Amino acid sequence: MPVIVVAGEEEFEVSRKVADYKAKLLDPQWAQFNFSRLENCDLTEIIDAAATLPFGMGNKVILIDRCELFTKKRGKEKDSKKEDASASSKDKQLELLAAALKNVAPNTYIIFSCPYNFDSTLKTSKAVKPVCTLEEYPKEKYYSGSENPKLSTWCNKEAKRFGATIDDAAIYYLLDSFEADLRSVSAEIQKAAVSILPATHITHQTVIGLSPHHSHVFTLAEEWISGKTGQALVSCQEILSRQSAMPVIALLQTFLSKWIHMRALVDNINSSLPGGPGLNRRELPMSEMAKRIANELGQRSTFIVERDLRNISKHSLDSLVAKRERLTQIEYLVKTGQMPEAQALESFIAS
User: Fold this and answer.
1) Strand, helix or coil for residue 260
2) Residue 15 falls in which region: left (phi positive, over 0), alpha (psi -120 to 50) or beta
3) Is the Cβ–Cβ distance between 211 and 177 less than 8 Å?
């Protein structure tokens, strides 16, 4: 179909897809004449644009950029009579729009680039959807330190785009480092793919060397729980130079909750192993334990699980619970104004 809607809150994917369409559809020699971009335009302008034809050879491409037609707008309430009149007028315009888009010339392409998720309940969406090719790119939710198969698959495809393959460990490192910002992750994968030439496999060590992320909360949490207090304090100071301590405290609460759950599962699994007179206390090997815990948590990959298990291996369940209680106390002191947030976080890391 000559009408294309590319919509979603994943801005990197939307913008790249639009660029791909432009490169595919436009004749480079005629692009200056056959490409036009409209922004913040009304339905009348779109209807008029849909009737245009290409100049010379190739296709005509009309980009409706930063389009808000297919997402709900929150604004002040309008007068009901005016709103009814406006709705009636808009319904007529939508009928004209649907008809115009249905009759777009075969070599004229209308591309709606929408930095918002497509809301199929809206009248504009219902009018356009039957006559368009819809491509949706919603932003994938990502939680630091957790597994996300969709994003892992995306990273593998991105590495392939640059002629390389990539370790799971390297993927998790990059997603954590850049909080799943796909534009940044893509740039780092491309940088790594170029740096290892003529080799084609991106390892964990490769991305560590190219993409240090010492200021990231994930690094802070890992340094702290593994007993690297000095490094953790340095990371803490770097973070506090850029943002408030409260989001960091909240994330540490999340990490501790996860670690407490994992420690409890480890203790339960080990306690169920055969034992008794004449038998030494047994523990599963780390790799086997990671598989068991990953299965309990419903995670496909054991990499993150094994990393967390190694980090908490020297901590008992009681000590982790005590740390969580201490963090909760500190959070209360900050919220009640009894302790500055930066001082509170640093004192928790140092204790």
Assistant:
1) helix
2) alpha
3) yes
